[in-house]
Design goal:
Blueprint (H helix, E strand, L loop, with lengths): L9 H115 L10 E3 L4 H11 L3 E6 L6 E5 L22 E3 L11 E5 L19 H6 L2 E5 L3 E14 L20 H14 L14 E7 L6 E9 L20
Parallel strand pairs: 3-4, 5-8
Antiparallel strand pairs: 1-7, 2-3, 2-6, 4-5, 6-7, 7-9, 8-9
Length: 352
Amino acid sequence: MASGKHFKSDKDVENKMEVEEIEISTSNDNEDKENEEVLEKENSKKSKKEKKEKKDKKDKKARKEERKREKEEKRKSKKKKSIGVKILMTILILLFIGSLVFVGYVLYDRYKNNKEEDALKTFIGNETNESENTVVQEDDGRMGKVKELQKTNKDVKGWLEIEGTDISYPLLQGKDNDYYVHHTWKKKYSIDGSIFLDKAYDWSKPSSNLLIYGHNNRGTKTMFVNLLKFKKEDYYKKHKYIRLTTEKEDAKFEIIGAFKSRVYYKSEKNVFRYYYFVDAKNKEEFDDYVKNVKKASLYKTDATAEYGDQLMTLSTCDFSQEDGRFVVVAKKITDGSTTQANSTDSNVQIQN
């Protein structure tokens, strides 16, 4: 038996063993815990890696799809642009063809109208009115030919001519002031239109002023384009007279003034609106019109007009200003002589 110093009871040994077991168990628990933590860390890393890989894969797929969409959009955009260019080119080609067709139509229309006008001028003849009295009545010659034209179109009121110029046309009068802007005397559509009388003129009175319109067909010699030559005094001096033949008389008019004008705004005051004057209500209104014509005239003329005289006003477009007009005014000669012009009145009343 061991000495008492080194002797340990079974209980002590058991306690010691228990302590050692606890320590071992604790040690194992700690080790397991550490292993679990390591495992968790590894799992966490793996999970993060998997998530990252999954996210990267998803992002890669998204980028691929985005590139695919962009490529498809570019393709569609390119296709749309291509279609747009084709449509635009088609429109331009159609416009070009349309322009050629329109120009061709205008040229053909003018050629055809010129042929008809030449035939008409040959038909009406060139005989002059040589009577001392400048109004010839009930003559079967030129007046009879006007009657023949009226059988084709009752709107023909006469034949207007400025001798020595290209202005020689039938004079029409419609129910409005629009129809003969783009119709011939045979009532066929034409961009050049006809020479026509204001609808307000009353032949039964007759009215004071034959207000007559015609196109300024630039680039041609048709209608009233040559009326603008009266801007020059020298031209006026060579072409002072206008001839109007109706079915009842062959009359001569002498020019009393030529001036530039325009279509005025309604708000404009103290301006000469010549295009409103067809029939004078009284002597004062007639005299005011004549005075305004004389004042506006580009040069002095040899003749004037007095109350009771028959006036004629020829009007056409003048492109030297916006809504511009050029106007020539004449009076009918009834006694075989011209009337000397009065001095210009500085106190001319302006029509509002």
